[in-house]
Amino acid sequence: MPDIACVNGRFGPLADAVVSVEDRGFQFGDGVYEVIRTYRGRPFAVDEHLARLERSAQALQLSLGPSKAQWGTLIEEGLRLSDLPETKIYLQITRGQAPRDHPFPVPLLPTTVLTFRELHPLDVLVRQTGVQAILLEDIRWGRCDIKSVNLLPNVLARQRAKEAGVFEAILLRDGVVTEGSVSNVMVVRNGTIQTAPEGPRILSGVTRAKVLELAKKEGIPVAETMVRREDLLGASEVFLTGTTVEVLPVVRVDGQAIGSAVPGPIAQLLSRRWEALVG
Ligand code: PMP
């Protein structure tokens, strides 16, 4: 089977998968999600993603539905059925279907969805030459650590990036870099990697944590600290991390060159270490 979905434990073709128009994910964006990818057909960092799914669900008093072990089994089953070269696995839990009313319905019966689609890796050339980004005001809510399906500000930001002909929108709150619309942001200043600390202003990226570990192993100093707009623009390197972007150098921001507008040595080194880790 090619692209498939699993709705409340039932597998079938993605094109046939449906949920009710009264699902609270549709009505209120009342749900959480995860994106996991495969490398050589095996799902990567499943434990970390399921742990974050559980944290996101708990923060919204949302039931995880299946246990973490059951989610793991569903992932394996979906991969077996879809049998794609590389797969982008999407997991979603919403607070279920109920007549539209803001308070939580009783009893709670979450809707759980998984989709399995072919993953098309980023063009190698894009990875080698780096990408461009724009800076935008971060207009999201105060709990960006929750991976909620309420992605409207992220959608608008990524659309602005697309219209500007660049890859990513890097978000600023009070002049301080939070993260990208779909990625975490790291800058290199005086040989140190600086990135926003974990907390309610950013999503704690699975890739972020692993890349920071790789950096420490290489003896590269890491500071989880506020990075101001001018620090980013004056940085020697900027790069993005994320499940789909992996380690991706940013060579221009708002049209301004970062360093000499080519991928820097630290981003390149970490990109190689990342390949070794996942390969
Ligand atoms: N921040 C945001 C807003 C994201 O959407 C993502 C992608 N999930 C990330 C950071 C990176 O997280 P991860 O490394 O876990 O994919």
From TrEMBL:
Stored InterPro entries: Aminotrans_IV, Aminotransferase-like, BCAT-like_C, BCAT-like_N, Class-IV_PLP-Dep_Aminotrnsfr, D_amino_transT
Reactions listed under catalytic activity: D-alanine + 2-oxoglutarate = D-glutamate + pyruvate
Top-level EC class: transferase
Gene3D superfamilies: 3.30.470.10, D-amino Acid Aminotransferase, subunit A, domain 2
Gene Ontology molecular function: D-alanine-2-oxoglutarate aminotransferase activity
EC annotation from Swiss-Prot or TrEMBL: 2.6.1.21
Transferase recorded as keyword: yes
Entry keyword set: Aminotransferase, Transferase
Family classification: Belongs to the class-IV pyridoxal-phosphate-dependent aminotransferase family.
Subunit structure: Homodimer.
Protein name: D-alanine aminotransferase
Gene that encodes the chain: dat
